[in-house]
Amino acid sequence: MYSEKLEMLIDGQWVQGSEGDVLPLFNPAYGQEIASVPCASKQDLDRALDSSARAFQIWKKKPAADRWEILSKAADLIENRKAEIARTLTIENGKALAEAMGEVQFCADATRWYAEEGKRAYGRIIPARSIDVRQMAFKEPVGPALGFAAWNFPAGNVTLKIAAALAAGCTIIVKPSDETPGTAVAIGRCFQEAGVPAGALNIVFGPPAPISEHLIASRIPKKVSLTGSTPVGKLLQRLASETLKRCTMELGGHAPVIVFDDADLDKALDVLIAAKYRNAGQVCTSPTRFYIHQNVYERFVAGFVERSRKIVVGDGLAQGTQMGPLITERRLDMMDGFVRDAVSKGASLALGGERLDRKGYFYAPTVLRDVPDDAKVMNEEPFGPLAQIAPFASIDEVTERANSLPFGLAAYVFTRSGSTAAAMSEALEAGVVGINHTAVHEPETPFGGVNESGYGAESGVEGLEAYLRTKFVTDKRV
Question: Is 298 annotated as catalytic?
Fold first, then answer.
């Protein structure tokens, strides 16, 4: 059933860990161990670091057109192997196969986009104050990079880091999640077979803390990119400060959804249901705090419960499945805790609120209504299939409540009023805002948060810029 051979990519070779340490890999739809994940030793990490430094001296000198050709081949390979990679992704992660297919296609699209954008890392000539002086600003790759990727989008999170770094002329060592290693391996094989030189891309696995500490302590990498939780982001930023590495931090969120009474309610419900239960709610941009205008509150709650009840939950590989399992068994306990706390504080359980009686880590689509602002689930990112709903009366009130948390990744507004949409898009503390839809991330658009949701951006020209530094050269004729 699970066919990907799990190996690490170090200095152009696919290898096991030099000390033989492994971690178990589980299929979350059945709770079964399906493979062993090789773990990198310090010796393995040092080999990866050294090869990354050597390869950087070669890769940074490649003309942008040559890098374009290699990345374009990698994109073609990813697309050609989409069905195979998506199957591996679903077995490891649990998400529905249709979602996995879409994610892998995004990887191919993003790699092509970065391949093209790498040819446009332009510098500029700056007019001088003296006629015998020429002033030039050059863009050059920042150096070897480190990428730490989360399990919830095991293809997308890995590919964005690899493609951006390589397009800019950097080399990169990627540490994917140990819960979803095969997806990263499959993506890595596409880049290697496309012609990325030995050492320009390294992929390692193992316990996150010692690996990140060892890699970040090295002076070889000049850049760190993380997709992960806010606590992990704070830790890695502290580690990176010792050598003043540049960081991009794409961290957790707790996205508010604001539905005004002039919204097209049926369309809003259809959009929000699909977004809420995507990947079982294990998405950093997932709509989580639903604020509904009091005039349409009862209609919205009834419509949300009705649609949630119809969600088909099961093995992501099974035909018709709309929502798969949570990634680990411990996530089930967290969902139970959120629900108990909300109910104890006055919320009503309108649907779900329980584990499903079957193998694997399945939790029922859950709707909580009349959830008070002091409930734990309104203040901590649930990262699961929980929808907590509360009414609001005025735009000023809901803006204050939406901005009350330290997080600021995504936010959503549903309204027919252009003035309301404009006002909310300016007032919301979020890195990405969706008006009447939830598609807030494309290869060509910047994606990232503010406040404790991190800083910097992946995708778009901003994602490439994160791997470039500026050098100023002033030339006086003699």
Answer: no
